[in-house]
């Protein structure tokens, strides 16, 4: 009886994991630009892996393995947003085109891509006139 | 129970094919990096499925290492893009 219930739970978790990852794959193929694609892949993919690890915990029923699967879930949940943030930031700096129907791009009017200065909109006159640092944080061309 | 494993493998394989299509047609380099990261995520899930399917708990360790290398690859590609590698391909 108990074994049947656990098997049904494992089946549900595995199938929903596969479906979530398939949704992530469809999203990464169909969505229009980089940011929306990251939105699809990060969340649905992380949830799919987490559900698969829960299924593994239920299947093996071993304390060491439960700890390892929890480590995988924790690791995925920590690193997926960090990696997505890094790639999105790099993509914005590189100048990846964003979707034409994007409603709001707050960096566009306040951010200078050449000097990497970000204005808050509340600077005084002399602050605006002050020259920026001559060495940008991210080099555009090589130094030769 | 056997069919559940096979259906899950099938769903994950379809996902791999779709992501690989995005990896091929992705217009810019960051698109391809996002596709690679999701590819590694699918591989982690597939390793978990295989561990359950063959009843071998050692494969969870493989899943941990695969997740770690995928994260490092994504961060490395992001730094490479920001530091001024080739901007388009």
UniProtKB/TrEMBL annotation, chain A:
InterPro entries to which the protein is assigned, alphabetical: PhaG_MnhG_YufB
GO molecular function, one term: sodium:proton antiporter activity
Keywords of the record: Membrane, Transmembrane, Transmembrane helix
Highest taxon in the source lineage: Bacteria
Regions that span the bilayer: 6-29, 41-60, 66-87
Annotated spans, Disordered: 122-144
Protein name in the entry: Na+/H+ antiporter subunit G
Compositionally biased residues, Basic and acidic residues: 122-137
From TrEMBL, chain B:
UniProt-listed InterPro entries: MrpF/PhaF-like (IPR007208)
Places the protein is found: Cell membrane
Pfam families from the UniProt entry: MrpF_PhaF (PF04066)
Signal peptide: none
UniProt entry tagged with the keyword Cytoplasm: no
GO terms assigned for molecular function: sodium:proton antiporter activity
Chief localisation class: membrane
Keyword Membrane: yes
GO cellular component terms given for this protein: plasma membrane
Membrane topology: Multi-pass membrane protein
Alphabetically ordered keywords of this record: Antiport, Cell membrane, Ion transport, Membrane, Transmembrane, Transmembrane helix, Transport
Record-annotated membrane-spanning stretches: 6-25, 34-53, 59-81
Protein family according to the UniProt entry: Belongs to the CPA3 antiporters (TC 2.A.63) subunit F family.
Protein name according to UniProt: pH regulation protein F
Species of the source: Aliidiomarina sanyensis
Lineage of origin: Bacteria, Pseudomonadati, Pseudomonadota, Gammaproteobacteria, Alteromonadales
